[in-house]
Amino acid sequence: MKIGIIGLGNMGSPMARNLIDAGHQVTVYNRTRSRADIFAEAGASIATTPGQAAAQADIILTVVADDHALEEVVFSHDGILEALPAGGLHVGLSTISVAFARRLKDVHREYSQHYVSAPVFGRPEAAAAAKLFVIAAGEQQQVERCSGLLGVIGQKTFVVGTEPAAANLVKLIGNFLITTVLEGLAESFALARKSGVEPLKLLEVLTGTLFTAPVYQTYGKMIAAQKFEPAGFKLPLGMKDNRLVLAAAEEAAVPMPMASLVRDRFIAAMALGLSEMDWSAIALLSARNAGIDPKF
Amino acid sequence: MKIGIIGLGNMGSPMARNLIDAGHQVTVYNRTRSRADIFAEAGASIATTPGQAAAQADIILTVVADDHALEEVVFSHDGILEALPAGGLHVGLSTISVAFARRLKDVHREYSQHYVSAPVFGRPEAAAAAKLFVIAAGEQQQVERCSGLLGVIGQKTFVVGTEPAAANLVKLIGNFLITTVLEGLAESFALARKSGVEPLKLLEVLTGTLFTAPVYQTYGKMIAAQKFEPAGFKLPLGMKDNRLVLAAAEEAAVPMPMASLVRDRFIAAMALGLSEMDWSAIALLSARNAGIDPKF
Amino acid sequence: MKIGIIGLGNMGSPMARNLIDAGHQVTVYNRTRSRADIFAEAGASIATTPGQAAAQADIILTVVADDHALEEVVFSHDGILEALPAGGLHVGLSTISVAFARRLKDVHREYSQHYVSAPVFGRPEAAAAAKLFVIAAGEQQQVERCSGLLGVIGQKTFVVGTEPAAANLVKLIGNFLITTVLEGLAESFALARKSGVEPLKLLEVLTGTLFTAPVYQTYGKMIAAQKFEPAGFKLPLGMKDNRLVLAAAEEAAVPMPMASLVRDRFIAAMALGLSEMDWSAIALLSARNAGIDPKF
Amino acid sequence: MKIGIIGLGNMGSPMARNLIDAGHQVTVYNRTRSRADIFAEAGASIATTPGQAAAQADIILTVVADDHALEEVVFSHDGILEALPAGGLHVGLSTISVAFARRLKDVHREYSQHYVSAPVFGRPEAAAAAKLFVIAAGEQQQVERCSGLLGVIGQKTFVVGTEPAAANLVKLIGNFLITTVLEGLAESFALARKSGVEPLKLLEVLTGTLFTAPVYQTYGKMIAAQKFEPAGFKLPLGMKDNRLVLAAAEEAAVPMPMASLVRDRFIAAMALGLSEMDWSAIALLSARNAGIDPKF
């Protein structure tokens, strides 16, 4: 199948490689050309505009940073929308807003094209190992059409509905729940520390009993050690996803006080200059407000 | 070894049975005598006061509801304190306050006795299957002295410090983190529901990807179904533990805004008459405040 | 002086009348023409576009609903920007975002025009009685240029800085503080009611002792009586201003947990269908979550 | 009338003086004897125990720090309860818990005595000038019995119910509302400061328009200047009253999220060592979390 891939960052690059390795005929595009050129020797064609990547494709995948980046890729005059052939399918893997996912569905339909949302859970290493979890939503036929591709980049695909935006909502909920883990651990470790309980001992108990999910292990280690660099997922990105879940909740008229609390943490973290740290650095606020010297 | 056990409720009864089965010489006491009598045929001696259960014991275990109940068992004139021989060891398995654990340590020392805190994670079924997790703290020698017993009732014992109160704090932190899961899921499912995402589909994604810990599975099912009866752990008990963690945090001067948020949920749930439900029924507040008919 | 006025709603109409009565040569524009026609007999010229109202004006006043409405009035091809003569002054009285005020300053400068922000505190009755409080900010010379006009519509003008956005920020802070009064009273009356204290008795004490400001009197009465109609200021407008203060705070990296709490109240109120009520109806949430039958 | 007064601190002393000046026959008691001796030359009798002050009195007034202090004064073996003649009236002016006020009513009734709660709003200067506001509650006949006395110490008495506890609740609500003003101003000034708006200019606008109540003026000045010493009302006292209102609300099953938020501020302030400052110093938390150098 002819595939276009737009966006060769930490997530897009390993996905592209896996799709090439799986024998697909791939055209890649990246705003910074040099990241695309690497794929030439692996057999990919290099496009100079998003539209060029889409022009010949059955399926065009987009893996970019946010709504804004995707808007440019889709709507600019060299963009996907004008170039993708009628009947073509755009599969959006980026973590974008629910509202934008709805708009993409509508606008592709106007162009007799199709749109499926397929955001993923997993870090770059998981992308490289094809161990991502894919959350997909869209018309059944179109989801099936890309299910082979999604199977190449991830270990499992969950289909959560026929409206593409549903997949984006589920992804945002997942990230919201991670932030509740971050804040919960932050408060817990602040309490433990000031009460004379060894943070690593607490972590061992938590992850050895009720909280066996890797997310507690990964972030618990960082928070117990108060070490938030290098960042796996930078704080401003976490803040962006918090903003998106709150926007979706406002639109649906659902108060989410925990998400509000986390929002205030992100804002305080920005005020303190932590934007280069991992998003789990919001834990420094719990430490600071408990009078613990946070070493920063 | 001669063991006394005080408190034969849902947790104490299966523990007693396991200790008898393991060949220990057990004396039991329960306020409601009938629950104790059952153990006579299994070979246990029946005490008519807490003090009687403690009088001959090397180790006296207490498994009662709260600070108040334990205070009576220990300090009443037929209580443990007066009866336990010098050198005897009191192992407290109840979920009590950090402050009371400290007091117990001090008062037993005055009587030349010993005190170890050993609260547990796990429900009655886990107690029956000896699959509890035990969190123990106290003087090393005393913890070792009861480690065999703890090994009989649980699958694993974590020793978290030499101050008994440390174990109680860790237990309370564990329960606090469960409440953050409850509230996080409550807000998530309210958002999903109002956005047209099937709750069970969301649950499948969450527990199949990032949130594999059983706690998400167990409570996610209840919240997705909005079915909170029969109660595994009643709402007022959850509220009590929330109160205890907030008390410990206030004493240590640690603000815990998430615990405060959960506190307000518990209070609202009491106001709405949900005290017979499982503590996960705080999720009804998220539904209600989002205008979802909560069917109650 | 030749004055243009754009926006003849509940606030703009009485302002226009006061300016005409003060002898100014006034041209009015309103999207719904009929509201403008009324002013013809009072001696005003009627413009058919915003630009027409601005074309001859020394000073053009805008009194519209929000950023969006003002954007149209300013930037549309029949708008102020193209029509206002060089050296002309735009005085914006609407409650708009801090970011948009900044943009207005910049864009008017590009057109060699001037911009002053002058939002007001006060309800329509205060506007009719020329008892508004005006919060003005902008270049000193320009503020002085319009100070006579502002003196006609209000009882006092506070000049808060040379950056127009400062006035908008102060206005938003004022409205934020009103919402803290609303929520504070809501929680207080819920507690009083459930504790057997007569709400009106409580109100009498509060407003007779520490809380003599009219805002406590006005809203206290509504909340004590749980009567939120007719609306003086509709709930969605309050929600809009909450959104604007949170946006300003996010941009400035200032966490505002009370504003976040109020935001969740507004969202819940929307979920419960209270959008036609006064913004003080967020008090119904406190009643509801305390199990008080809120009669709605 | 024969009056006993117990507690001659900053509030009790000026009250005693005013009552002596009004011609009443006064017996005083203070734990630290020296503060009582001062009143001998003014014509007061000095008691050496609370009971002695109550023994001859028609009415015994108590003006002590908290529940604990009042408990000692009432229940100790030299206390009021045993000494006050049948038919005697205890008027409690201290800010105590709702629960304790209920208990006092009951226990005095058992002794055929009477109890009226009459806490006050106002600082020591207001007490000296007899400008306090008195909030009274109790049986109508008993409130009337002491209304003359209350008229001597304050400028106005509000009778809020026949249950003594009602007065204590109203007092706690008043203090709660002050804390919402503190936190509201704290967030407002943090935002203003980081946005380039002069704090004193903002204060001038707020207190000159919507927020004319003295409480905004008094605390606004302190927060604008970030100067919290000398303390008018120390932070731990504010925290105590916050604890009492939350306890009353929990008992009545009323969630008060704003009070919870303020609680977390008080705890953080204690963690940062601000206990000698005025309670308005919780504003430092808003500054800190916004990255403003709080100069402490």
Mean pLDDT of chain A: 96
Number of domains of chain A: 2
Radius of gyration of chain A equals 20 Å
Helical stretch tally of chain A: 14
- Total beta strands of chain A: 9
Low-confidence stretches of chain A: none
Largest interface: A-B, 63 and 63 residues
How is the CATH topology of the largest domain in chain A named?
Rossmann fold
Assigned CATH superfamily of the largest domain in chain A: NAD(P)-binding Rossmann-like Domain
Tell me the span between the first and last alpha carbons of chain A.
51 Å
Basic shape of chain A: elongated
Mind telling me which CATH architecture of the largest domain in chain A this is? 3-Layer(aba) Sandwich
- Secondary-structure element series of chain A: EHEHEHEHHEHEEHEHEHHHHHH
| Neighbour order of strands in the largest sheet of chain A | 3-2-1-4-5-6
Residue fraction in strands of chain A: 5-15%
Describe this structure in words.
Four copies of one chain form a homotetramer. Chain A is built from 14 helices and nine strands. By secondary structure, chain A is an alpha/beta fold. Chain A has two domains: 2-162, Rossmann fold; 168-289, N-(1-d-carboxylethyl)-l-norvaline Dehydrogenase, domain 2. The first copy, chain A, has a six-stranded parallel beta sheet. Chain A has a three-stranded mixed beta sheet with strand order 7-8-9. In chain A, helix 9 runs parallel beside helix 14 (283-289). At the A-B interface, helix 9, helix 10, helix 11, helix 12 and helix 13 of A face helix 9, helix 10, helix 11, helix 12 and helix 13 of B.
